[in-house]
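Weekly structure sync - notes
Attendees: PM, LS, DV (DV joined late)
Agenda: review two folding runs queued last week.

Item 1: First target. Sequence and structure tokens pasted below for the record.
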Amino acid sequence: MQVFHHHIYEFKKGLRNLILHTAPATHRSLVIKKLEHHGIDYLIYDQAPGKINIFFGDPSCIQVLRLIGKQSLNHFTLEEDFMLGIMLGYDRKKQCERYITRSAKAQAVQELTG
């Protein structure tokens, strides 16, 4: 929970607009209570058994995730994954390289299968 509290601190200080935090599912109610106490918008995705991904931050960033409408990061398109990485503040150049690599792999699979 120390990392989660630090993420709240970073958001409140304006260091990040959107945060992705992975936590044990058993922390769900505590996380929700803390975020609601601070008036921070959030979205929670259930992950592998016993894990949750908590997105929280600026209401417009959370709204974008709601509009994408996926319930798991595994269901994001390559473009949605790229956009999410940029929104989370990941290195732009590395996100571009990741997108190019993943696109090339997807195209190769598509060519093999038909």
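Item 2: Second target, run right after the first with the same settings.
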Amino acid sequence: MNHRIVILGGGYAGAHAASRIARGLRAPDASVTLVNAEPNFVERVRLHQVAAGQDVEPVRLDDLLAGTGVQTRVARVTGLDADAATVFTDRGELEYDTLVYALGSTGRAPEGTFTLSDHGGALRLREHLGSLRPGDPVRVVGGGLTGLEAATEIAESRPDLSVSLATSGRLGSWLAPGARRHVREAFARLGIAVEEGTTVRPGEGEGTTVWCAGFDASSLAADTVLETAEDGRIRVDRTMRSASHPDVYAVGDSAFVRGPGGRACEMRCGMGVPQAWQAANAIVSRLAGRRPSHYPLGYLHQGISLGRRDGVIQFVRWDDRARRGYLKAAAAARYKEAVCRFAIASVRWPSYFPTRRRAVVAAPALRGDEAHA
């Protein structure tokens, strides 16, 4: 028996799912193939650094997954027939027995603006910023984590530019009071003008616009027979298994799953990785003939870079509400860097710390009832 497991997408969620599944199953019994549009793993949480002109050394997926048993295939996914269990790519078709859908999300970037949702977008912004003259205006739209990081990184690397940030609310309104003050102090130190309570329409203003006002799930799933939510994410149960197709799992920004308080989990790296672990554990358990376990999904912290030597780490409750505790300045910058490094190192763990690989004893049940037990 060779159970074919295919993972679509080699971002944080896809890479973690692939390495954990391969670690948990015997190679003769199961094959794990990771399909990604490019050969490199994209550290999405570092794209603001790339855009600002810093050298972020790329990590090849082959190297990242070396020793895990995962086979990588560089191809762009063009379609999915979930009823026929077939993936279509620009380099041929792939049939699967179990699919992990981890195609992530894309930035909402109106025409004429720049985005940090992918590596290509970060490189285009980097090239454009390099062509600007002193005093040229750069406006970042969006007051979320990505917007704060983009504005501060650009202002720090190009202090000669006129950098501003426009947000529909108050700057850092969701943070604890002390953390919010520190963000404002960092913006003042870097000379970033803040436009609060502002709704920006595409095409407004002069100069360069960097659009960081939200993400949309990959549109591929919505064009299939998979059951999706209104925002295009695949509806899954507590083990990240599709509500309509039990041989399909979804993780990361592609998954619609309820978190604390019954609210849908947000599109965030810190949520995608635990979802990947959850899906991988469930797949291994079911293929090994065991009842899958699950654990509640929740939040721990929010990490915000404010340049290379400054930042804020906001500790949060399980439902993402800010606690009073936070880190700031250099301590927060070191903490954020450690989190970024951990996100990479934990993909490699299977080769560093081998664990017992289980035999595939049967195909998983065609009903997900046990996930709700």
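Discussion on item 2: The first helix runs from residue 12 to 24.
Action: LS to circulate a short write-up before next sync.
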